[in-house]
Amino acid sequence: MMSDTISFADFKKLDFRVGKVVSAENIEDAESLMRLKVDFGELGKRIILSGIKKWYQPKDLKGKNFVFVVNLEPKKMMGEESQGMILAAEDESSENCVLLAPESDIAPGTRVH
């Protein structure tokens, strides 16, 4: 089922950026959460918490670029604050999850349209 339709103006409010994962680690006592420290170039480094532990190991993410939403309201999870969201495609069965990444190397902080 498709989500509700939003206006183009609402879509433009989202700030998508390329971020380079500087470090990644599983959060102790969290079933699915991983803590990512992400470099967004001139925007600085941020902590992003993501429920991707089922599909990825921290070593698989370090040093790689992915696409993030950087202007979400911070959210507390497991006593920590997440300052954005990594984008991923997940199938209906939740068996497969693929993180969205640029096709070639590009600078951290680059805007995604």
UniProtKB/TrEMBL annotation:
Subcellular location: Cytoplasm
GO CC annotations on file: cytoplasm
Catalysed conversion reaction: tRNA(Met) + L-methionine + ATP = L-methionyl-tRNA(Met) + AMP + diphosphate
Name listed for the protein in its UniProt record: Methionine--tRNA ligase
InterPro entries (alphabetical): Met-tRNA-synth_bsu_C, NA-bd_OB-fold, tRNA-bd_dom, Tyrosine-tRNA_ligase_regulator
Gene Ontology terms: biological process: methionyl-tRNA aminoacylation
Keywords noted in UniProt: Aminoacyl-tRNA synthetase, ATP-binding, Cytoplasm, Ligase, Nucleotide-binding, Protein biosynthesis, RNA-binding, tRNA-binding
Stored CDD domains: tRNA_bind_EcMetRS_like
Domain TRNA-binding span(s) in chain numbering: 10-113
Subunit comment: Homodimer.
NCBIfam families in the record: metG_C_term
Enzyme class: ligase
Function: Is required not only for elongation of protein synthesis but also for the initiation of all mRNA translation through initiator tRNA(fMet) aminoacylation.
A single GO molecular function term of this UniProt record: methionine-tRNA ligase activity
Keyword Acetylation: no
EC number: 6.1.1.10
Stored PROSITE patterns: TRBD
